What does this fold into?
Amino acid sequence: MTDVLPTVISRNPADPADVILRTPAPGAFAAVDTVERARAAQPGWLLGGAAARSAALGAIASGIEAAAGELAALAVREVGKPLAEARAEVARAAAIWRYYAQAPFGATGAVHETATGPGLLLTRRRPHGVAGLITPWNFPFAIPTWKAAPALAAGNTVVLKPAPEATACALRLAEIVRRELPEAVFTVLPGGATEGNALVSAADVVSFTGSTPVGRAVVRAATARGIPVQAEMGGLNAALVLPDADIEQAAAHIAASVAGYAGQKCTATSRVVAVGTSLDPLREALSEALRALPVGDPADPATVCGPLIHESARDRVADACRGLSVLAGGTVPERSGWYAAPTLVEKVAPGHPLLREEVFGPVASLLPADDLAHAIRITNSVPYGLVTSVHTADLNAALNGLDLLDTGMIRINAPSTGVDFHLPFGGAKHSGHGPREQGGAALEFYTSGRTYTLAPAGAAT
It folds into this structure.
């Protein structure tokens, strides 16, 4: 009698009756076999040369651009991403592939003089082998891209285990990618925890993005094997608004960061710290901005806040706000799909879960601070440290406070959301582990450094 494998099921969060995909999860043994096939393909991919890798990545970028409309529509349907954001994500994915298409021609090391005598000392970076990538559902094209593209550019092969909720997007991306690559150089591994655990147990380098509990488990497993690992995890991000800020602009930026894509971004704003006299005008402006944001069908180009990914995610937002003083939102719209209104609450007790745990929904707490130093203490009081936005007209005040903020990224007079893919991305404390992602940092992570000593034959030692 054979065991029946679990089934991966992906549904449309705006219309849960719409099932996008059903596919069997392959299981742990098949996952390990996938890694072994990728390992066998890796030397050929590396030895094919920089020009071949560069051309392949450039062709992938072109393939994504050619399918942009289809890919955006699939992201809308499978993960409920508003159409405007879905289009922007697909464009960013193409740009990332094109950015890393130049990387194979970059220097991989340096030449140094020996301390004494003839010869040379060389440093060189080489690929690890098989990169195991575990990615979330909220950026179904961009996050797999910003992990896979630098890994491939450096000469690794890739096995991607996407979140079950984004399996159709990952498989469609794989169709475009695999057209330009040799067999087994890029493989998608559908499934859940079983397949993810097997991938971590077999790959040569692991990159993870997702929840903090799962990320910490991935880090423990990879570290026990002695392989390189990076994990980008949760956030409880703050927006600091100083009294001299442009309140209307700050409110617009913060509202977009709270409610864009229903707050389902690790960089979303979930705490708004109003400094001194900014509290009253910000309370009014931000409440009004949140109430004005379009909530509805993600396929509508005007929609900013679409559905939550699951019914349980919607219920978690409602539970988090229960019993609090609600300034805006706090309701569940009467419509099909898993929606929640963008919500702002205040008078939240210091020990409340909203101030300690990531909700991953369109809800934020408004908190008063006496001055900038107090605001920084509030910002740093949580276990997470991904990104902080600071809104002020006084650049000197912002610069004086920047180094005291215990977060990996700081954005001045800009939303907390948004990523510059050519610069390092990552957080501190429970938000991140290991080297940064994106930009040149990614190329370093997916390679290991080696030092070579070249001495002439017959030279004295």
Remarks:
- DSSP finds 14 helices and 20 strands in the chain.
- The longest strand covers residues 15-24.
